[in-house]
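2024-03-11 09:14:02 INFO worker-7 job=invfold-0412 stage=load source=structure_tokens
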């Protein structure tokens, strides 16, 4: 696990105003309310919840989620799995394809490590070649039979990874069952694009199509006499639909923990819990110009793939619009259309709070997350989290 510099650790117990900028800050009270709502939602629907750790990339946060009832964690990269396992996380699912021999050697070693400490490693596959390569890696590593669970990924509409629904998925399950070093564990059926459809009705319709693909595949498994131990998938945007389907045994939401500006733009589904923003970029005004203020949080402080960040907690008469200022600068203009008709701008040195457009890649820009208790105005730094999986690309 990554170390925490003494200068950063010294912030613990200090007022929030002592945090230098730009910094990535967690509102611990809001985060914990989000966790409680997710745990209650999963319990009410009778499903397991396996949050996606590519959001926070922190072993400490993963363990907090497990203490609240999470059954384990999803990751997308072998290196993410290794980083969390090194921090004590024992139940991991690489919900992605891994085909290179070097990476599969690492998968096999990790599977052995987790198996030896009564943990679990699972992985997704979508080809017979991928299955054969995984089986060989497990055999070469002399891993115990049953040391790794293998789920067939089904393309349920995103047209990214995944075998086509129906008979093709059954064929891959047969290939897994034929390998003594592998254990068939079910289906991965996740539609990432559906998470960001703006209307609740559009998301319901997208998942209705997903369920048609999944049910078609289930019927093929029934006809083949092959038991399906689990169907897993779903994200923060659509989890209410998968959880209510009676088909999914496990859901994989991740962004619920922090939320971001992109998810906040979705129409709320009344059947889903309300999750709060809990992740902010703290920034301050570093320069003033004609009709603009400049803050110290540019692209190096927040991801822009889902749009620019949004200013948090400003009244309409002080509404600001964030515009691209490059790597080191954010440009702030009066948002007259939102109510700032006077042209108000913050003063030099004034603190502002940004809601990132996309949480996951924003977290990947930082080595540490600063957890604050008591709010943005009078809060106190309670703990520092290491971003153990930062830069985990392989």
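2024-03-11 09:14:09 INFO worker-7 stage=emit residues=394
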């Amino acid at each position: 696990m990554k170390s925490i510099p003494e200068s950063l650790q010294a912030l613990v117990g200090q007022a929030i105003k002592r945090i230098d900028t730009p910094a990535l800050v967690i509102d611990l009270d809001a985060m914990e309310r989000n966790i409680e709502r997710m745990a209650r939602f999963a319990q009410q629907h009778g499903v397991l919840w396996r949050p996606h750790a590519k959001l926070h990339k922190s072993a400490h946060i993963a363990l907090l989620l497990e203490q609240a009832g999470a059954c384990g964690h999803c990751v997308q990269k072998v290196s993410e799995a290794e980083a969390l396992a090194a921090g004590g996380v024992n139940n991991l699912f690489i919900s992605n394809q891994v085909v290179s021999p070097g990476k599969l050697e690492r998968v096999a070693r990790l599977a052995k490590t987790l198996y030896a400490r009564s943990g679990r490693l699972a992985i997704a596959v979508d080809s017979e070649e991928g299955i054969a390569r995984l089986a060989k890696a497990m055999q070469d590593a002399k891993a115990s039979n049953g040391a790794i669970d293998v789920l067939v990924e089904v393309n349920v509409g995103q047209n990214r990874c995944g075998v086509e629904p129906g008979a093709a998925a059954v064929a891959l399950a047969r290939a897994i069952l034929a390998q003594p070093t592998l254990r068939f564990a079910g289906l991965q059926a996740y539609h990432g694009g559906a998470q960001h459809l703006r209307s609740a009705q559009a998301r319901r319709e997208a998942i209705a199509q997903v369920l048609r693909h999944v049910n078609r595949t289930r019927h093929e498994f029934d006809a083949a006499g092959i038991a399906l131990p689990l169907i897993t998938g779903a994200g923060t945007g659509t989890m209410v639909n998968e959880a209510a389907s009676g088909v999914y045994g496990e859901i994989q939401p991740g962004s619920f923990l922090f939320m971001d500006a992109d998810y906040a733009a979705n129409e709320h589904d009344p059947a889903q819990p309300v999750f709060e923003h809990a992740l902010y970029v703290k920034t301050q005004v570093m320069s003033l110009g004609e009709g603009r203020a400049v803050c110290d949080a540019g692209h190096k402080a927040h991801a822009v793939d889902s749009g620019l960040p949004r200013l948090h907690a400003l009244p309409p008469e002080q509404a600001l619009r964030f515009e691209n200022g490059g790597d080191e600068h954010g440009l702030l203009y009066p948002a007259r259309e939102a109510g700032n008709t006077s042209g108000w701008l913050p003063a030099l040195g004034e603190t502002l709070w940004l809601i990132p457009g996309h949480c996951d890649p924003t977290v990947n820009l930082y080595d540490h997350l600063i957890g604050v208790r008591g709010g943005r105005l009078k809060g106190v730094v309670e703990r520092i989290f290491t971003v153990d999986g930062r830069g985990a690309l392989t």
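2024-03-11 09:14:09 INFO worker-7 stage=report msg="The first strand starts at residue 23 and ends at 27."
2024-03-11 09:14:10 INFO worker-7 job finished
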